[in-house]
Design goal:
heterodimer; A: about 110 residues; mainly beta; seven-stranded mixed β-sheet; B: about 110 residues; six-stranded mixed β-sheet
Chain lengths: ~110, ~110
């Protein structure tokens, strides 16, 4: 049971380049999330997918697109990277039980845009 | 929109001292969750509180949810070097709002 996996672990992009961050979970969870974490700050939700086939914007969606490829996979795309997108990106998954749920996070992708 | 604030931002303690971090929400929360992130690591779920006034314990960690369900606290008794990291609270249903975290440093 790998939990939540993310690729790549590190990436350096030039301004204007594009890339896709991959995320997969093997816990059969319905919900998946993408967050960014900047130094000294908490996690900010970029996009989430409550179930296969649906995606919704979070707090900071501008400059990103997502695809929920199937129940296991949720990818995040930067079409034209900007230095402001330098951050650590975490993918997470969860299953809603009762009034709440716990989120399982992947190891993160450290992205630098120069 | 909803905001979740944590205080303090940073605290350093001597090993063996107690530590408390506080979480305050601008709106009533259906539940609150606490996560721990070790330096260079990813957030790891610690606990969830859902009932008004709820108190839960995990060994040296005590979590409380306020009566009005707008605030919460995490208290660590007799800190150890393994407690080092950043502690985040988060609230909400599908779209979790995270606080900025409290970074704990423990000096041996």
């Amino acid at each position: 049971n790998a939990g939540v996996t993310q690729t790549p672990k590190f990436q350096v992009l030039k301004t204007g380049q594009s890339m896709t961050l991959q995320c997969a979970q093997d816990m059969n969870h319905n919900s998946m999330y993408w967050y960014r974490q900047d130094p000294g700050m908490g996690l900010r939700l970029i996009y989430y997918s409550a179930s296969e086939g649906t995606t919704d914007k979070g707090e900071v969606p501008n400059g990103y697109n997502v695809s929920r490829l199937n129940k296991r996979e949720f990818s995040l795309r930067l079409e034209s990277a900007a230095p402001s997108q330098t951050s650590v990106y975490f993918c997470a998954s969860s299953e809603i039980r009762g009034q709440g749920y716990e989120q399982y996070f992947g190891p993160g992708t450290r992205l630098t845009v120069t | 929109g909803q905001q979740v604030m944590q205080i303090p931002q940073y605290q350093h303690v001597q090993e063996g001292e107690d530590f408390t971090t506080y979480c305050n929400s601008s709106t009533t929360l259906s539940n609150i969750q606490w996560y721990k992130q070790r330096p260079g690591g990813h957030p790891v779920f610690l606990i969830q509180l859902v009932k008004s006034g709820e108190v839960k314990k995990q060994k040296r960690l005590t979590f409380q949810f306020g009566e009005a369900k707008k605030n919460s606290s995490l208290h660590i008794t007799a800190t150890q070097t393994t407690d080092v990291g950043t502690y985040f609270c988060s609230g909400g249903y599908n779209k979790l709002i995270f606080g900025a975290g409290t970074r704990l440093a423990v000096h041996p």
